[in-house]
């Protein structure tokens, strides 16, 4: 049964305090929650953040009005908690001091936030051999971590968690046009990183 089909019954069980419903929710959503926490706050903090989020869910599930999908609500909790963790550990300030140098990309997008000239997809842009490179994977993680906060979060929600644009807007509180621009800018930085690695073999 899909998440969408089972969600009303699952919500009813969670609100009633049914342990089986809680176990099913953890099995269904915890992997996505952990990926999000790891990408925003780092691998070391991810498990603690997710555990704290589940405690918050148990305490607040009766107040969840269902205006968004359950998964969107859970990821929003994780993202907020992960951002709070970054502020406490000053990692966010470190990213501000060490940003990816990014030229203005405004001339690449139209007023709706779409590419004026479409870029190639990942499949044609990245030879298969590069995907097996540990150095490239490490470089990718470094660049992902240094992206501006909302760009990184939009990319994680879309590419790692499969969120729709509507869900990204809900989770990040941005307009559809802004969500597309955030994703385009993040993808552009990573495309250019891959191009540079392909040419020089260096991050």
What layout of secondary structure does this protein have?
Elements: H1 3-15, H2 19-41, H3 43-60, H4 70-89, H5 91-97, H6 122-125, H7 128-131, H8 134-146, H9 149-160, H10 165-172, H11 176-200
Please, could you describe this protein's structure?
Helix content is 72%, strand content 0%. With 203 residues, it is an all-alpha fold. It has two domains: 3-92, Orthogonal Bundle (Rna Polymerase Sigma Factor, Chain: A); 100-200, Winged helix-like DNA-binding domain superfamily/Winged helix DNA-binding domain (Arc Repressor Mutant, subunit A, Orthogonal Bundle), CATH 1.10.10.10. Helix 2 (19-41) crosses helix 4. The N and C termini lie far apart (43 Å).
CATH domain class of the largest domain: Mainly Alpha
CA-CA gap between termini: 43 Å
Estimate percent helicity: over 70%
Q: Give the low-confidence spans.
A: 1-5, 95-103, 120-127
Radius of gyration: 18 Å
CATH topology of the largest domain: Arc Repressor Mutant, subunit A
User: Largest beta sheet, briefly?
Assistant: none
In total, the number of domains comes to: 2
Strand proportion, as a percent range, falls in under 5%
Order of helices and strands: HHHHHHHHHHH
Q: What structural class do you assign from the helix and strand content?
A: mainly alpha
CATH architecture of the largest domain: Orthogonal Bundle
The number of helical runs is 11
Q: What is the residue-averaged pLDDT?
A: 78
- Going by CATH, the homologous superfamily of the largest domain would be Winged helix-like DNA-binding domain superfamily/Winged helix DNA-binding domain
Overall 3D form: globular
Number of beta strands: 0
């Amino acid at each position: 049964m899909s998440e969408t089909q089972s969600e009303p019954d699952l919500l009813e069980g969670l609100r009633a305090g049914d342990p089986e419903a809680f176990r099913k929710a953890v099995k269904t959503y915890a992997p996505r929650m952990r990926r999000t926490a790891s990408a925003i706050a780092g691998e070391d903090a991810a498990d603690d953040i997710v555990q704290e989020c589940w405690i918050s869910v148990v305490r607040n599930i009766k107040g969840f009005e269902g205006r968004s999908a359950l998964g969107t609500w859970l990821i929003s909790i994780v993202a907020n908690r992960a951002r709070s963790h970054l502020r406490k550990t000053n990692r966010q300030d470190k990213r501000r001091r060490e940003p990816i140098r990014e030229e203005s990309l405004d001339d690449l997008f139209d007023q709706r936030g779409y590419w004026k000239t479409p870029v190639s997809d990942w499949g044609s842009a990245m030879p298969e051999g590069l995907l097996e490179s540990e150095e490239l994977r490490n470089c990718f993680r470094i660049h992902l971590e240094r992206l501006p906060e909302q760009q990184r979060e939009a990319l994680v929600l879309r590419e790692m968690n499969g969120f729709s644009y509507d869900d990204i807007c809900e989770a990040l509180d941005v307009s559809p046009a802004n969500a597309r621009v955030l994703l385009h800018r993040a993808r552009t930085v990573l495309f250019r990183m891959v191009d540079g690695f392909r040419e020089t073999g260096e991050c």
